[in-house]
Amino acid sequence: KTIIDAHNISKTYNKKMVPVKALQDVHLHIEEGEFIALVGPSGSGKSTLLNMIGGLDEPTSGKVIVDGVEITKLSENRLIDFRLKNIGFVFQSFNLIPVLTSKENVGFVLQLQKMPKKEREERVMELLQQVGLEDKVKSKPGELSGGQQQRVAVARALASKPKIILADEPTANLDSKSAENLMDIMAKLNKEEKITFLFSTHDQRVIKKARRVITLVDGKVDSDVQQTSS
Ligand code: ADP
Ligand code: ADP
């Protein structure tokens, strides 16, 4: 089953009247349950592509279809709603709210969705267990290591049971042990919960874990290969 379909995606940024072609005519077809690394030199368009697929920004031309919905046609309000329910995001800088505990950072999204308190608490505990942080429920981001913070971010991304998780260099700020731990958690979620993962990375060890590697160069797909993961 197709989960993401990108047709002729182009994105041009206008910086001080100078156009920058960040993506040029990108086609992408992703099946449910894939585990994909997006690679390429800095400035090749990885973040831009993730932003287009996740509906965080609009392409200049082309269309993006996620789980059968053409998100490039949705109104801003519908897009926000669609994103909340269907797509989880993980960023290299964790993006947690510093004054909130792990539990609160993860529960925040569910609160926005008006999930009743008891149900919410159960779900949050289950999520923190999935990422191995049941003993850090009451810690704030500043009291956690980078690896632990990123695991809170993954738990938060999972809160609304998305079918897709998009991660922009999730291991960039982690030491190699934490990076490996994070990848193992993501691989497990991919296998057991059938969540589709698309993550950009520069890390060879992370790339090795992917089953498919898409390489961008100058805003174009340069290669797209299946590999036997290790
Ligand atoms: P990558 O993630 O592969 O490093 P990006 O998608 O961040 O690549 O950037 C692709 C190109 O688009 C780069 O030339 C970058 O400078 C440019 N770019 C990205 N975002 C913006 C923006 N918001 N405004 C102007 N230029 C941008
Ligand atoms: P990455 O580490 O993924 O390459 P960057 O550090 O290039 O990301 O960019 C981080 C964010 O800033 C992205 O969301 C991107 O869209 C934006 N950005 C990148 N390049 C530019 C630019 N030249 N002008 C404005 N915004 C940019």
From TrEMBL:
Record keywords, A-Z: ATP-binding, Nucleotide-binding, Transport
Xref: Pfam families: ABC_tran
The keyword Transport appears for this protein: yes
GO molecular function: ATP binding
SMART domains tied to this protein: AAA
Top-level lineage group: Bacteria
Ranges of residues in domain ABC transporter: 4-230
Record-linked InterPro entries: AAA+_ATPase, ABC_transporter-like_ATP-bd, ABC_transporter-like_CS, ABC_transpr_LolD-like, MacB-like_ATP-bd, P-loop_NTPase
Protein name as it appears in the record: ABC transporter ATP-binding protein
Organism: Aquimarina celericrescens
